[in-house]
Amino acid sequence: MLYNGNMSTFKRLLDFFIKLPGVGPRQAERFVRYIEKAPPQYTHELSLALAEFKRDSKQCDGCYMYFTGKEDQCAICLDQSRNRKHIIIVEKDVDILALESTGIIDGIYFVLGGLIPIAKDIPTHVRYDALLARIKKEKPFDVTIAFSVHPDADHTIGYLNNTIQNIHQEGSIHILGRGMSIGMELEYADPETLIHAYRRRTTHQSENSPLSVHTVKKQVRQK
Ligand SMILES: [Zn+2]
Q1: Is the pLDDT at 193 greater than 90, yes or no?
Q2: How far is the CA of 61 from the centre of ligand 1 (A)?
Q3: Distance from residue 44's CA to the centre of ligand 1 (Å)
Q4: What is the mean pLDDT of residues 144-162?
Q5: Hey, what domains does the chain have and what are their CATH numbers?
Q6: Average pLDDT value for the chain
Q7: Interval between CA 200 and ligand 1 midpoint (Å)
Q8: CA of 139 to the centre of ligand 1 (A)
Q9: pLDDT band per the 50, 70, 90 thresholds, residue 2
């Protein structure tokens, strides 16, 4: 990298941008170059906007999504017209934004905060206990697990399915249909693909699954 100015301040700012998701070194350098040439008023307002945004951001104590506002919960969790008997579990905040862009989700969300790696099989880095507490509290009729298409996601679905069944056997667990291609991140899926996957969601089946049996019986009764 060629740079004729103060390399330490340039590098310091560059390192901030490289940490942003989806930003590579070349794009980060373009951002720094842009800020270098921008009027002082712009950079002053940018720094104020960053500080104020961070000051007003908080984590929802219902779904764990970050949001800006004065309440303890986000607008989705506070929306009384939402179906509280349908909980949609997602891996990360941005997945909620992608699913909400479809306009067809009626339930409330829970951000797990990651996936359970196949190699580990212990949910230490995700909000596992908080999820089970919310399931016990809300007693949902439906739980939809909406993850990206990934081996760790499949492993996490299996793990959650078994443990949710153990504490709450009155509902059904659904997973997204395979409208999404393998390796696709949910946050980058377009609304039409997500609508397709959501409408084709299926009940998760596993061995020795009393919940799956219950679901099948319920479906037969409805026919
Ligand atoms: Zn919330």
Answers
A1: no
A2: 7
A3: 32
A4: 89
A5: 1-40 (no CATH), 66-222 (3.40.1360.10)
A6: 84
A7: 25
A8: 17
A9: low
* 171 CA from centroid of ligand 1 (Å): 21
Q: Measured in angstroms, how far is the CA atom of residue 135 from the centroid of ligand 1? A: 14
Centre of ligand 1 from the C-alpha of residue 78, in Å = 7
pLDDT digits (tens, 9 = 90+) for 10-68: 999 999 999 998 899 999 999 999 999 999 999 999 999 999 999 999 999 999 999 99
Question: What is the 77 CA–ligand 1 centroid distance (Å)?
Answer: 4
In the reported structure, the alpha carbon of residue 76 is separated from the centroid of ligand 1 by a whole-number distance in angstroms of: 6
DSSP line for the chain: ----S-HHHHHHHHHHHHTSTT--HHHHHHHHHHHHHS-HHHHHHHHHHHHHHHHHEEE-TTT--EEESSSSS-HHHH-TTSEEEEEEEESSHHHHHHHHTTS---EEEEE--S---TTT----SS-HHHHHHHHHHH--SEEEEE--S-HHHHHHHHHHHHHHHHH--SSEEEE--TTSPTT--GGGS-HHHHHHHHHT-EE---TT-HHHHHHHHHHHHH-
